[in-house]
Amino acid sequence: MGLPPPPPLFLGVFLLHGILKPLWGELVFIPPFIRMSGPLVSASLVGGTKDVTLSLAVLQDKAGLLPVPACGVLHNEIGDWSLTVTPSVVRPKDVLEVTVRLKRGLQGCSSNETISFPESPCIVQTLLVSASHNSSCLAHLLIQVEIYANSSLAHNASENVTVIPNQVYQPLGPCPCNLTAGACDVRCCCDQECSSDLIELFRESCFTGVFGGDVTPPFDQLCSVQRAHGVPDWFPFLCVQSSLANSPFLGYFYHGSVSSREHASSEVYLHTDPKDFSDFGYKQEDPVMTVDKTYFTIPQVSLAGQCMQNAPVAFLQNFDVWCITDLEVYQEPDDIVNAKIKSGAMGGIVTPKVTYEEATNLEKFITSTETLLRNGSAPRNVNVEEHYIFRWNNNTISEINVKIIRAEINTQQKGIMTQRFTVKFLSYNSGNEKETSGNPGYQLGKPVRALNTNGMNVTALHLWQSAGKGWCRTATFKPILFGENAFSGCLLDVGIDESCTQLRENAAGLFDSLIQATHVAMRGNSDYNNLSDGWLKIIRADRPDTGAKPAVSGANGTCLDVPAQLNIRILFSDAGAVEGITQQEILGTETRFSSVNWQFQCGLTCEDKTDLFPLSASVQFIKIPAQLPRPLTRFQINFTEYDCNRNEVCWPQLLYPLTQYYQGEPYAQCVAKGFLLLSLLMLAMFLSNPWTRIRKAWNSATI
Q1: What is the longest distance spanned by two Cα atoms in the chain?
Q2: For residue 203, what is the DSSP state?
Q3: 3 state DSSP class of 537
Q4: Rounded to whole angstroms, how far apart are CA atoms 672 and 204?
Q5: Which residues contact 91 (CB under 8 A, 6 or more apart)?
Q6: For residues 33 and 41, what is the distance between their CA atoms, to the nearest angstrom?
Q7: Each residue's pLDDT tens digit, 85-137
Q8: Mapping DSSP to helix (H, G, I), strand (E, B) and coil, where does residue 266 land?
C-alpha cells in the first residue's frame, strides 16, 4: 500500500521553504505540499523556469525519512503516475503548470462494492516532484496520496434503469431517510451505505417511525399486539394472524413502471384551435364563437383572483366582475362594433349594438395623485364599465346589446384603474320584468330579492363595493348573493367641526343605504306585486338612536356609541325538491348594529384636519335543518363507546346489511339475502364434524 504520511517535521520544513523562497526571488512550487484524494492534482512552479528540468519520484523509505532526490534525471512517468508540464496562460515565461495524474483506474481496488466508505484508503503513497537546473535541485513538491476506492471522481455514472420492486408485495421506500445516493445519511440507521462504525456514532439518535425505516410496523389488528393497547375482551376472536411483511403501507405508492423521461421540445406542436360546434346550436356553458372561428372574449376573474383579459364568454352564464389594471400597461381593446358573432344557426351572424356613456365620477374608477386631464395634452379614452346583454332563443343568440362607460384621461396618465364587466343572458321575449333568483327556490349565487313597501324601487340588499381610496362617498353597491357569506367596508371622512350627533347620523345613513328594503322574498320567484306571496319582513334589531347620547363625552373629544358595523343574518333551509333538485327558501332576515366609542385623531394640530372612521358590513347565511335532529337518549349520552361517530367499533351496525344504515339495496332484498345466508350457515353446521359427534353421543345416550 505504500508509506504512512510523512513526519510533521519534514512537512513543516517544506512549508517554510516554500513560503520564504519567493521572497528571495528563487524557484518555488505553489503550494509546496498537496494532499491528493483524486486521480489528478496541479501546482504552479514560479520563478526562473528557463532550462528547468522536472522529475517525479515515488518515495519508498519505510523509515519515514525523505531521501536525497536524484535531480537532473528526467522521470515523467513512474509506475502508475505521470507528470505533465505546461506553460502558464498568464505568465508563460515565469510560471509553469505542473500536473500529476493517476494512469490506471480504481475498478479493482475494492472487492466489496457495497461498502461506500471503507475505513482504509485504496492507495497510500508519497510522491516527490523536483525541479532542477544543471543537476542542482532548486525546488520540491511533496504530494501525499490517499485515494479511496469509491471516490466520485473515479466512478463512471451508471446508466442502468433502477429496478423498482412491486409495491403490492414490498414498499417502494424501505428506507425513506436514505436521501443521499452513495453516501451515509446521519441518523439514518437503515442506510446500507453506513458502516457499522459510523452507525455507532449516532445509534442513540436514529430516526424512528416510517421515516427511519420502520415501513412494516405491526398494526393494531394483529394477534401478536393484543396487549399493546387496552383492547376489549373479544379481541382474540377477531384478531388477524398475519406476517409482518404484510405491511399496512402497501399500496400507498403509485404502482407504475419505470420509463425514460421525455424532455420537452420546442418543436412540439400544441393544438390550440378552438372547437366550434356553434353551427348546430349552442348548449349551456359552450363558448360563444365569432365568424373567424375564435372565442368571443371579455375580461374575467380567475379562481386565483387575477384578471384574465382573453376569457371566453360561456353561453347562458352570467357574471359580474371587477378587474384592476395598471394604466401604464393598459391596452385599448378591439372595437366591439366590428365584432361578428355566430348566432348558433347555420350561417347566422349577430352584430352587437353599442351605446357609449361618459363616466361622471372618475375617482370611483381611477386612483392617481396626478391630474386626470391636463390642458394642452393629448387625451385618450379608457373603458371603465362594459355591460353586455345577450338575447337568446332556444339554443341561438338573437341580439347583443352593449353599453360602454368610458372616461377621458391624459395619455401619460399613471395610476390604477378599476374596471367592471357584466354579462347577462335574457330570453328573447322578456321585457322589463324583474329577474327571478330561482324557480321556485333560490339558486346559489343569485341575488336575494327584496321589496320596499313604501314605494321605493328596491329589488335587492346590498354591500359596499369599495374602489379607489376606499371612501364611503365614492363606494358603489353590490347585491347580496344567496348562500355566499361576504364582508365589505368603507372609510367615512370626519371633519374636525362635526359633532358626535352628526357623526352618528352620517354612519347610520350609510348603513340604511345598504338595507333600504322592508321585506325579503322567501322564494326565488316571489311576486313583487303580491305581498302575501312569500314576503318576509326584515327584523331590525338594535337600531342606532342618533340623538339619545350626548354629543361629546368629557373634554377629550370622544363620541360614544357610534354605529360602526352592520351584521346581516339570513336563515334558510331545504324546502323540498323539484325533479331531484333541492329547493331552498329563506326563513328570516335580521339586521343588527354594533357600536364603538371613537375619538378624533389629529396629531399635533387639529386645524382643517379630517379623520377616517371605518365602517363595515357583513352577511351570514345560516342553514336550519328541515327536521330537528333526534335528541340523544340518556344511554347514548352516558355510554359513548356505543357511539359510531366517536369509536372505531360500531355495535348498532354489527349486522350492517340488515340495518337501516345500509342504503345500497332495497331493504326487502337485503333481508332475503340474509335469510339465505343464514340457511347456508345452518346447513353447514348440521353437516360439520362437531355436530355429527354430538348426534352420535345423543344417540348412544338414548340407547
Answers
A1: 130
A2: G
A3: strand
A4: 61
A5: none
A6: 11
A7: 888 766 666 788 889 888 876 655 544 444 444 555 677 788 888 888 877 88
A8: coil
pLDDT at 520: 93
Q: Give yes or no for a contact between 489 and 527, defined as CB atoms under 8 angstroms apart.
A: no
What mean pLDDT comes out for the span 618-641? Answer: 79
- pLDDT digit string, tens, across residues 630-653: 787 777 677 666 677 766 677 777
Task: DSSP letter for 363, please.
Answer: G
49 contacts 93 by C-beta, under 8 angstroms: yes
Half-sphere exposure of 617 (CA within 13 A, CB side): 24
Half-sphere exposure of 450 (CA within 13 A, CB side): 23
- Report the distance separating Cα 646 and Cα 499, nearest Å: 58
Q: Please give the order of strands across the beta sheet that includes 33-36.
A: 33-36, 136-147, 123-133, 53-58
C-alpha Rg value of the chain to the nearest Å: 44
Calculate the alpha carbon distances from 671 to 49, 660, 668, 680 in Å: 104, 11, 5, 14
Higher pLDDT, residue 376 or 293:
293
Beta strands 535-537 and 519-521, pairing class: antiparallel
Distance of CA 166 to the CA centre of its chain: 31
Contacts of 624 (CB under 8 A, 6+ apart): 571, 572, 573, 587
pLDDT tens, position by position, 173-226: 778 888 887 788 888 998 888 888 888 878 888 888 878 887 777 776 777 765
Helix (H, G, I), strand (E, B) or coil at 477: strand
Residues 444, 447, 448: CA angle, nearest 5 degrees? 95
CA 3 to chain centre: 59
| Cα torsion through 215, 216, 217, 222, rounded to 10 | 160
Give the residue from 541, 619, 623, 618 showing the smallest Cα distance to 587. Answer: 623
Cβ-count burial 371-396 (b if 16+ within 10 Å, e if not): eeeeeeeeebebbbbbbbbbbbeebb
Highest mean pLDDT among 416-425, 539-548, 636-645: 416-425
Going by C-alpha positions, the residue among 395, 438, 288 that lies closest to residue 352 is 288
C-alpha atoms less than 13 angstroms from C-alpha of 326 in its C-beta half-sphere: 3
Distance CA 622, CA 625 (A): 10
More confident residue, 76 or 525: 525
What are the grid coordinates assigned to 277, written together?
360546434
* 301/308 Cα distance (integer angstroms): 6
Q: Residue 11: which pLDDT band, with cuts at 50, 70 and 90?
A: very low
pTM (2 d.p.): 0.45
Where does 25-183 show beta strands of DSSP type E?
Answer: 28-30, 33-36, 40-46, 53-58, 77-78, 81-87, 95-102, 123-133, 136-147
Beta bridge partners of 562: 596
Q: What are phi and psi of 345, to 5 degrees?
A: -95, 160
Segment 446-489, tens digit of pLDDT: 899 998 888 777 788 999 887 667 788 878 888 999 999 999 99
Which runs of consecutive H residues, i.e. helices, occur in 391-543? Answer: 500-514
What phi and psi values does residue 651 have, to the nearest 5 degrees?
-65, -40
Q: Measured between alpha carbons, how far is residue 478 from residues 322, 470, 535, 556 in Å?
A: 11, 15, 22, 38
Q: Rounded CA gap, 50 and 309, in Å?
A: 73
Residue 148 predicted with pLDDT over 60: yes
d(CA 518, CA 536): 8
Residue closest to 501 by CA, chosen among 566, 559, 543, 565: 559
Distance, CA of 484 to CA of 570 (rounded, Å) = 11
CB burial readout 224-236, b (16+ within 10 A) else e = eeeeeeeeeeebe
Distance CA(307)–CA(333), nearest Å, equals 15
CA distance 700 to 703: 5
Could you give the CA distance from residue 189 to residue 591 in angstroms, rounded to a whole number? 64
Instruction: Give Cα 370 to chain centroid, integer Å.
Output: 39
